[in-house]
Amino acid sequence: MNMHAGPRGAHMAVAALLGAVLLLGGCAPAPDMRPVQAERSKPVQRFDSFQSAASNGRWIVAGAAGGVIVASADAGASWTRHVLPQPSSIVAMTACPDGSFAALDFYKKVWVADAEVAAWTPRPLPSPSDVLALSCDPANRLWVAGAHTTLMVSADRGANWQRQDLGEDAILTSVQFIDERHAVATGEFGTVLRSRDAGASWQKAAPMPGEFYPYATLFIDGQTGWASGLAGVILATTDGGNTWAPQDNPSGVPIYALLKLGDRVYGVGAGGRMVTQRGGQWQRFEPGAHAVSQPVAGAALDARSLFVAGAGGALAVIKLPEPLTLAASLPRQAD
Q1: How far apart are CA 175 and CA 153, in angstroms?
Q2: pLDDT per residue over 12-63, tens digit each?
Q3: End-to-end CA distance of the chain
Q4: Burial status of residue 279 (CB atoms within 10 A of its CB: 0-12, 13-18, 19 or more)
Q5: What is the pTM of this model?
Q6: pLDDT grade for 205, boundaries at 50, 70 and 90
Q7: How far apart are the C-alpha atoms of 110 and 158, rounded to whole Å?
C-alpha cells in the first residue's frame, strides 16, 4: 500500500482489500457439520467419564460424571443413552436380586429403574453428607453410605429412608451384604463396620492398618475378604475384618474394583492392568484386546465374563479363557 497517496487513497486501498476478503469468504463453502453431529448422536461419547457399573444378568448399565447412564441388553454390542437432569454425577450403581437397578448421584439422590431399564426415577436422600457407596441387600433394600460414617437404608426403592449417623469423622467407601444377616462397610482411616442383624445395628471393628483408604472392598464369605487402595496396596482378612495383612500386588498399580466371578476374584486397576486370586496369591491377568486404558469400575456378568468401564467413553466386555475353579484362596476361620 502506498502511504504517500494521501488519506483518501489509503482509505480506498483498505476498502478494496476488505472487499476482496469478504468476496473470498462468501465464496468459501460452509463447514460440513455432519461428522460433529454424527459423533454427538452416538450413545457413548469420547468425553464420557464412566465411574460405576452394574449388571442384572440381562442388562449392563454404566454411569458417568455429568449424569450419563448407558445401558446394553446385548453384552455391549449396542447401547442406549440417558442423560439425567443437571446437576448430576453417577458415582455408584447396583443391581438388586429382583433385577431392578439403582444409581447413586453425588448430588444426594438415588435414581431407580426397573429390570428392563425403561426409565430412571429420582429419589432424594435425607442427609447433607456426601455419598459415595451404594448396594442392595438380599431383601432388595437399598443401602447408601458416605461421609461422617452415615448409613441410609430404604425398603421401598428410595421413597423413604432410615438414616444412621455413627458419629465417626470418616467417609465410608463401600457397603456390602455378605448374606441375609451379615454386612460390612469400610472407609477412610481404615474404618471397618460390621452388622450381624441385617443392618439393624453396626459395630466398629479394629481399623485396617496405616489409616488405609480403601477404593474397593470385597468379601466372598463372612470371614474372607480383600480391600484395595492407594499405592497399589491390597489387604486381606480371614477373620471377618478383625485383622488385615498386606498381600503382594504384581500389577504394581492401584486396584479400583474387586469382582467375584464364579469361584474366582478379579481386580481391575490403573492402566488397564488386572489381577486374579489363585492359591492365596494375586497373579497378573492379561485382558487382551479388550483392555481398557483407564478403568474405574466393573461388574461381573456371569462366571466367564466381566464388564469394565472407565474414562474416555471406555466400555468393554472381557471374556475369560478358562473355567473358573479357584483353589482355596485363603484359610478360613470359624465365625
Answers
A1: 11
A2: 454 454 444 444 445 566 676 556 556 667 999 999 999 999 999 999 999 9
A3: 93
A4: exposed
A5: 0.84
A6: very high
A7: 7
